[in-house]
Structures are given as structure tokens and as C-alpha cells.
Amino acid sequence: MAFQQEEKDQLAAQLVQELSHTPYACLSLTQLSGGTANFIFRGILAHPLPDGTQTVVVKHSKEFVAANRNFSLEVSRCLFEETMLNALEESLPRITTNNISLQTPHLYHFDREQSTQILQDLSGTIDLKTAIVSSPDVRVNLLPQPISISIGHAVGAWLQEFHSWAAHPAQVELTKKMAANEPMRKLRYQISYGAFTDVVQKFPEIWDQHGSALKQVQDMAAREYAKSIRDEGAGDWSVIHGDFWTGNVLIPNTPSLDKRQQAKGMNLYIIDWELAQFGRREYDVGQIIGDLYERMHFLNVDSALWVIQGFVAGYGPLSDAMAFRAAIHAGVHLICWYIRRNPTAPFLEDPELIKGAIRTGTDFIVKAWEKDRAWFESSPLVCLFG
């Protein structure tokens, strides 16, 4: 059950009181949309900060999901987000590719006792997922093909830079800290590899044909998620974002065809680092590809495919082994669309479209498991293979 409006108002009043004796005292808090795990507000500061900042984002975490208090979630997640935001700002502050800059939001203050973060207010932005699923007349201005490809390319280049940074020996202490984020690692497994076979079994025609291979993939993933930084063979693993999808990429909420905007450049932000963990970089690569393909499949949105193409080009060449593993992860993510939706709401999608998503996700997994490169060369994921 979600918080009722009265409870949200009480929480906002409580947060205003808690902040009243800090430099971030707020005149008011307004809840922001998005973010199912935490309570997120925009605060109007009682006094501007020295740099002139007048508004901030207040992010408050509890030991359950904000959208469903019956879904327990370790509040320690915000400690790991603090660690990542501080580390990234210190040594990976901004990356610019083709006049598009990417960075993480600035963390002004973190109250560990209250699990409350004060973050940079990224007003004037929209998450990439919302832009992609917006109405066609809005989307054609926000994400024409050249801009879609450019954004995808910049995000891919940023992710490659982040993965390389995270794998550098200089980040060994950070890796040790983030490897302790076991609750979120278990959650990530639970809502992906731990669940996808149950979904496919709801479609006997697909399960009967591919169930054996899917179980092998699930067993492989279980062994992977049990791996620690002390295990042999974990040397090519590192810190990953852990929830790298289009909802966590913010872009300007202005028409991208605006020539003045293109001339002065574009600022993008990578947000929500609570699920950062020790893992394979293919998890990040595969998740955003699976997420984008989901938009393309259900909404027939060309911009999602353009972003995929730009993203893979920006990330750079993948070995066959990495491409196959990313394709498996993309397939699992696509299948798990089935459980990411509101479980109490009726399906609005055509049954054949739903079955098509499960079949396509299964094909991605099985063909990658079989290392069938020829199949992928005529698939929507051909760009993974150079």
C-alpha cells in the first residue's frame, strides 16, 4: 500500500522541520513525480546558497518502497548512493562527447540518521524514458533521429568511461565498499534472473521449446551473483551502476531541434545510484538495451532503436563474449517487463504483443547462450556485434 496524501504531507512537514536548523532550510516542499523507491521533493530554500541556488531536491529513504510500504527495502541503500556520488564527483566529474556533457548530480548534504539527501535540483530536465514514450508530436521535437543517436552515443561513451574508471586499481577501496551492497545485489537478482523463468512458464509454447536452456542460464546467473571480489575469476568485474535504464538518464526538457541549444551543448545526468554494486559491466549494457527494446516493441518507437544504435557505438567495440552476455541480460530484462508492471492492474497490451515480447526476450537469451552470431546479424541487436 502506498502512502496516502495526508501521510505524504506529514512527511514533508517533518522534513521541513528537520532541515530548519541547516543551511538547507526550506520554505516548502513539493513532491516530485517518478522514483518509486524513495520520497522525492523539490524544496524552495529559505535562503539561497552562496552560489545563488534557490531550490534543491530532498530525497528521503525508508525501509520500504515509497510506492508500496509492503515491499521491504534496506535503507542502507542511501549510504551506498552517497559513497558513489562523492566518489564520482571527486574523480569522474564530467565527460563531454560531441558537445553533450554527462555527469552525476551534486550531493550537498546527507543526514545519515534520517536517511535524507539534499541534492542538486535538475529542473528543466526530463528522464529519457518519459521523452521516448511521450506523444509523437512531443517526441519528434525532443528526440529526432540525429539527437536520439547523439544522446545514445554520449550515454554509451560515458558508461564506457565509468566502467574503465571503476575497474582501475585506484578504485580498489571503492570496490570493496560497494561490494558490501549485498541487499541491493540480491534484489537485482530477485527481480531479474530469479524471476524470468517463472514468467516464461506462463507461456507453455515458448517454455516447452526453450525451458532447458533458460534454466541453464538461470543457474549460470545464480553462480555469477554469488561471486565476490575475493573469488578467482572476478578480476574483470568492478563497480557497476546496477540500475542503468532510461528512467535514470535525464535530458533537457526542451526541443532538441533548437539550434541555440545545439550550439551551446547539452547537459545530461545519470541519477539513482542506490543499486550500485560489484558486478559484470554487461549488466549495465544489457539493461539499458533491454529497456530501450521494450519501448520499441510495445510502442513501435523508432527513437528507442536510434538510441540503442548510438549507445552501442558510443560504448565501443565488444568482444563476442561480452556481446553475447549483454544480449542475455537484455533478454532477461525484456521478459521481466511482465513483473515490473503494476501486478494488480489488468493488461492493456494485446496478448500477441505480450507473447511477442516474451518470445523475443527468450530468443535473445537462447541464441546468445548458443553463441549463434549468425542469428544476431539479422536481429535488432546486430549492432552489438560490430
TrEMBL record:
This is Aminoglycoside phosphotransferase domain-containing protein. One of its GO terms (molecular function) is ATP binding. The keyword Transmembrane does not apply. It comes from the Eukaryota. SUPFAM superfamilies: Protein kinase-like (PK-like). Keywords: ATP-binding, Kinase, Nucleotide-binding, Transferase. Residues 151-290 form the Aminoglycoside phosphotransferase domain. The keyword Kinase applies. Belongs to the methylthioribose kinase family.
